[in-house]
């Protein structure tokens, strides 16, 4: 992609050929004039940094760029009022669209957890983080839900292992 060819050298501030989490964070905008959530940046880089070098090279960056662009399109689809934020109802519509069936109380928990600005809404970067964390938790849960009935029984240590594999 031509745009990525243009973009990579501008994001790679130290000209190392590797885009670090700090460089990516500075390049990204969540639409709120606040820095992109560092946890989201690390999470995204971790998905694409295949050699654990602490950043992504040009080829990996093309994947990062597509990933973020895809999330931007999803975000815009569910940001029904075009506010640049996802409110509780929009989050519910998005996650229901992804196949989740969750209680209203759980959506309140998600908003409290991922609303870093205290406005009862979730910014773009935190929306990505919310969805990624939820997907990872779901994947781990499914590994233990061998009969696929939506219930698992785990020991305390198994539970801790599950949680720490996510965070």
Kindly describe this structure.
Has a lower Ca(2+) affinity than isoform 1. Pfam families: EF-hand_5 (PF13202), EF-hand_7 (PF13499). This is Programmed cell death protein 6. It is found in: Cytoplasmic vesicle, COPII-coated vesicle membrane; Endoplasmic reticulum membrane; Endosome; Nucleus. It is a peripheral membrane protein. The protein is mainly alpha-helical. It has one domain (2-166): EF-hand (Recoverin, domain 1, Orthogonal Bundle). It is 61% helix and 5% strand. The chain is built from eight helices and four strands. The protein has helices at residues 2-11, 21-27, 38-48, 58-78, 88-97, 104-114, 124-144, 156-166; strands at residues 19-20, 55-56, 86-87, 121-122. A two-stranded antiparallel ribbon has the order 1-2. Strands 3-4 form a two-stranded antiparallel sheet. Helix 2 (21-27) crosses helix 3 (38-48) and helix 3 packs across helix 7. The protein is globular and about 50 Å long.
């Amino acid at each position: 992609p031509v745009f990525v060819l243009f973009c990579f050298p501008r994001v790679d501030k130290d000209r190392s050929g590797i885009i670090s989490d700090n460089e990516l964070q500075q390049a990204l905008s969540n639409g709120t004039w606040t820095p992109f959530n560092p946890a989201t940046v690390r999470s995204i880089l971790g998905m694409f940094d295949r050699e654990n070098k602490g950043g992504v090279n040009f080829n990996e960056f093309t994947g990062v760029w597509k990933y973020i662009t895809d999330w931007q399109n999803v975000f815009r689809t569910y940001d029904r009022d075009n506010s640049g934020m996802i409110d509780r109802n929009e989050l519910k519509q998005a996650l229901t669209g992804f196949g989740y069936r969750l209680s209203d109380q759980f959506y309140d928990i998600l908003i409290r957890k991922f609303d870093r600005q205290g406005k009862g809404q979730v910014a773009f970067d935190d929306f990505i983080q919310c969805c990624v964390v939820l997907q990872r938790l779901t994947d781990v849960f499914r590994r233990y839900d061998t009969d696929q009935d939506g219930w698992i029984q785990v020991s305390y240590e198994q539970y801790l292992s599950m949680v720490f594999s996510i965070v």
